[in-house]
Amino acid sequence: MSQPLKVPSVELPERLEIQIASLAEKTGRSRALIVNDAVGTYVNNQLRWLTEMDSAIADAKAGQSYDGSEVLEWLGSWDSDAEKARPKPTKA
Hints:
The chain has helices spanning 14-27, 31-61, 68-77, and strands at residues 64-65, 90-91. By secondary structure, it is mostly helical. It has one domain. The chain has a two-stranded antiparallel ribbon.
């Protein structure tokens, strides 16, 4: 069962409105679906980022550290079919 939808009022720059309309026309998707997908993806990514940052801060407070290049590889793989596992912390 799907959740009831709310219709928020969102002001978008004209250039973005034009891009959304173009994408809708080219893909056969509604503008509402495109905006809903975009907002959902953004919110999920931001929440994930903040959750991972909280975890990394807790690890740092516990004396753990991460290899920077491994972290960048992991972050770069997010939302891909080949997403890497979160790097393991090491003792500082």
